[in-house]
Specification:
Layout lengths: L3 E6 L32 H10 L4 E6 L10 H11 L5 E6 L8 H4 L4 E5 L5 H8 L7 H7 L4 E7 L7 H11 L3 E6 L15 E5 L2 E6 L2 E6 L8 E4 L5 E2 L15
Parallel strand pairs: 1-2, 1-10, 2-3, 3-4, 4-5, 5-6, 6-9
Antiparallel strand pairs: 7-8, 8-9, 10-11
This protein binds iron/sulfur cluster.
Length: about 250
Amino acid sequence: MYDFANILFAGPCNRACPWCIGRLLPDRVNVSNLNEYPLRGLEGFVETVNRWRIPQVTLTGTVSDPQLYAHEARLLELLRERLHPCARLALHTNGVLALRRIDIFNRYDRACISFPSFNPATYARLTGSTHVPDLAAILRRATIPVKVSAVINEHNAGEVDEFVARCHEAGVRRLVFRTLYGDERRWSILPAYPVVKWFKGNAVLDYHGMEVTRWDFDRAECRSINLFADGTLGTSYLITRTPELRPAG
Ligand code: SF4
């Protein structure tokens, strides 16, 4: 019934992306849970994941990065103990702390790094910082599969060819371009490369052995549950449309 279950972190972030979707959520779900253990609502979340045998649990954020969570390793341990044996643990991160916390990074089953550009000036326009994480070094030290997810808009659309080539060079095997929530514009991504398959309504291309997906959130056919920082358990894949966050009445 559900494709995955997300644990969402909130609090101060180490990047300041102008498009950060969590800022569209009510303030009450963005209270910091970065130092909280156990997390609010975790019991009900674990019970729901086990009841529906949800295959993947992802640590991600609304307005913060999950690697900023003070109890990351302890939470992973608890999830390994308490979740059904087929549950896989995934990390969705901006990659800023990946090298510093590589030991914990490698305890997940897989990771997805949100990484929009190798160019410091472009990276700054998209994340508010000129410090670009060393993607090649992260990939060298990762012992788990790592996917790269790049938000695409007017700031980096002109760099697509160079970006794809550098990702390939760095050893990326799966790359996803995703448009921003509500952005109707469609960018030209590797037009010369054929679509080799479709994944949940999204086109997948082959670039010299690297899988490149053009992900369109609005067309995605996914189902998820989401544990917000205030303990709310949401049931909408698009977090801004979570029925549980609508004002009563
Ligand atoms: S890294 Fe993620 S959580 Fe942090 S500001 Fe950017 S989009 Fe928001």
